[in-house]
Amino acid sequence: MSSFKTIEWKDGKVVMIDQRRLPGEEVYVECSSYEDVAKCIKEMVIRGAPAIGVAAAMGIALGAVDSAQNKEGFFESLKEVSEVISKTRPTAVNLFWAVKRMNGVIESNRDKSPTEISGLLVEEAKNICEEDIQICKDLGKNGSKLITTGMSVMTHCNAGGLATAGYGTALGVIRAAVKDGKGIKVIANETRPILQGARLTAWELERDGIPVTLITDSMAGYVMSKGMVDAVVVGADRIAANGDVANKIGTYSLSILAKSHRIPFYVAAPVSTIDFGCPTGDLIPIEQRDVKEVTHIGDKRIAADVDVFNPAFDITPAENVDAIITEIGVYEKPYEESLASMNQ
Questions:
Q1: Is 111 noted as a catalytic residue in this protein?
Q2: CATH code reported for the domain at 140-343
């Protein structure tokens, strides 16, 4: 378990660590309205697919509490809250999964008073948060079986406690392997343009006392060619029904390098990240972010004044993925069949 709180419901507010300020400052943001939560998701105060799902649930709960006195317009207000939350970030399917789950609570309790419904929604949001921690621990145990003693594991972006309610997906596998006494070490890619690997993953692992070496993204191929990588483990923001994976930009390139060097490439994600309604990765929306993420560091411009293309994610084809690690098991190709077995 991480030594920090990614997000929690506290005294009627949603409190989350401001990931934009790490590693320099450990600062927490208090959200007293659903609009505050929506802004935090959109501006990446909180990020990582499972953590976004938890934040979405808590945002809806806040909106319900705020609207509970408006008996006539209560359900209409909740509809607006869900719409605002749903428009924050398009790629991470956990957000939409959480919104759907919260709306299920609303629909199944329409005969109750707004105060009762808002109370149920607060409890559901807390449950989603607690469940996520246990899911990641179970996922980590399953993934640890793929990691052998002394391995050097490469990861990309941040799929740790900061990307979840507090334990991690890809880093959950790493934490579980360390707990199992496997003596592994980690190579963290910096993850341009906003350095989630350098700022967040390295920060988490250093706090946990897990050996980590930071490299620039462009060094990955060289490091692999020198035999310094035994496995790659990444997270996911959405997995299509055929096993195609949307994850932080640069993941696709990493999968090609791993395949070329015959290094196993694993994706660690909860079942809620699998979008069974999305047949292939071609249909996953890719978020385009502010060009200043590329051209600036803070307020300082570091690039020439030219056109910039800044997709936040890319699609790794299923054929490049050796296994998908979830809380209920490890799945292998063909993913159309293995993933579909979850619904049988």
A1: no
A2: 3.40.50.10470
